[in-house]
Amino acid sequence: MSYAEIILPLPLDGYFTYGIPDTLSERVAVGMRVLCPLGKSKKYIGIVANITGTKPDFEVKDIIDVLDGAPVVPDKQLRLWQWLAEYYLSPIGDVYKSALPSGLKAEEGWHPRTELFIGLTKQFSTGQGRQIAAGMLHRAVKQLETLTTFFELAAVNGDRGVTKEELMNQSNATAATIKGLVDKGILYTYKKEVGRLNDGGADHPERIKALSTAQSTAFDAVVSQFHDHNVVLLHGVTSSGKTELYIHLIAKAIAEHKQVLYLLPEIALTVQIMQRLQNIFGGRLGIYHSKYSDAERVEIWRKQLSDHPYDVILGARSAVFLPFRDLGLVIVDEEHETSFKQQDPAPRYHARSAAIVLAGMYGAKTLLGTATPSMESYQNAATGKYGYVRLSQRYKDIELPKVEVVDIKELRRRKMMNGPFSPRLLSAVREALHEGRQAILFQNRRGFAPMIECPTCGWVPKCDNCDVSRTLHRGLNSLTCHYCGAVYRVPDKCPNCGSTDIRGRGFGTEKIEDYIRDIFPEARVARMDLDTTRTRNAYDRIINDFSRGKTNILIGTQMVTKGLDFDNVSVVGVLDADTMLNYPDFRAYEHAFNMISQVSGRAGRKGKRGLVILQTKNPDLPVIRQIVDNDYRSFYRQLTAERRAFRYPPFYHLVYVYLKHRDERTVEQAAADLGARLRQVFGSRVLGPDKPGIARVKLLYIRKLVIKMENSIDYHRVRQSLRAVQQQLLQSRRYGALQIYYDVDPE
Question: Which fold has domain 402-449+506-642?
């Protein structure tokens, strides 16, 4: 008898061993789905990770059934799962839950989409038969009209067939009319499987634009660098035409019969890029991200396993889990973006790292593209680990936008601010509107106001479940916690002192929108943040409207910073740079530099030079000057000196260890206990425990430890030690309900 090691969709380490009955032994293979019993009555769909002939030294149950005729998870994807579980200290069951669409994990499974079609019965399919049918209907005028319409549609559609819905719409017939034709034996109905995926049509390689001289030089350099490096960093300024260069590389890979994975940090970006790629690659292009329905994602997964998979997959971070046959190129666009790092739930992986590992398994090349490289990628390029190509010229030699710094501290002292807007910003927006141009206003905080306050006694409403203030959303007339999602009614009066004078503090995108509508009543205004883009179509609508000039001013959070391409934007306003610069995180300056530089790059992409108004209370900070001068190298040198001195990435690896419990004293004690145990192993590399910035979320109290490890350390032993210490701690009964999880290489 043989035995299978199974991955179950449970947050548990390791595999579950099951026996393979003789009746199923020839049908089971690695990567297949099998139905497995667990406990007295539960059943789960597991993935076969390994088959062995060695009998375990414990009793095992047999698998119940095999659900596939061929593996749904290829060997290389399984290896990627195992690497993610190992590197990010995550249970492999969590990796399985994150990787596979729900339709492939549920016992009831996925059902193909079917549609009701109309066919002509055999006896009426000839010319004579049609005449007979027409004769039968000489008194049923509506049925005759419907049948005539059917003949017309059948001639046009050919093998595609005629759907019942199409016939009803075209002939204005009712269901009863069609039923009458079926009852007379002239027509019949049948169900046919139809895909949920859009057919992109034929490919048009002739539509690929010729590269400029600078782009062509960069393209040749990338190809050359790929001979010596598996990973190449393309450092191109905003609007330098990186996407066009990607298109040429994709075409080259397809010509070599290789598949391409193109990763983007935000679903919003897929809207614009999809249109450009579909125009060229047609039906060769597949789209994959979490805004697609589960059934659509299952169909894409199955198509990738078929004999005719997509040549190019465009998607957000989850696209790394898709199966590939012959992956040749991976493109990670905007590689610096923090959105590539999964936060919750586990696994807390970085899609950039996962993509590089996946490419390595296939022997593929990886291109990292950005205008503002992450410190890790730039350091790898500087040390020769990655290839490096610089594209410093904007397309058609358009100048980089002019950045003006406005000291809002001084303006507020002189009472010259109009809410969150400086006079200079308002005049620039007014001038842009007058010229028929567009403006983008960037505020990295959604909602109407970050909090409300009673000015009489200072009362600020906090979330009942979390240690954060409630954010005011005036459009919904509610207070919302952005951590647990709890919604509260806006109070009429202060519960502390009874005052009815309750005011919002600070500015969110919703409040900015209200201000702008009042100041520029003639302008068409749109807002792009998490609240306005909850559906898949919402992204499309906002971006398309702005691209076509239907809206004049776009207000947004960091969504508007990420590689969007708008032709007519002349002004970008950064309303409050200090909220990013003063954030208590060692990456604060890096994130601020990247975000402000990226949003600045949305200005002046076509036509005349763009203008960026950067509002700050600290105009003398070196990072502000570096942003103004677009001086990444100076910024990198300054930051690397600090990072090296204080033992931060890219010179050290970080592991954050989080503990959660409903009782604060228990989590405090557990954190102290765990910290002491870890110091016995790692010594001074362990910092803490301490309270994180938000010390309670969803009624769970949180404590945090930080481990700083040299790049040269043996990470396999590190992970073994961490798991051993965790197991020792959890053996204590008082820590039974304690949650411990890790964030490796936090962003």
Answer: Rossmann fold (3.40.50)
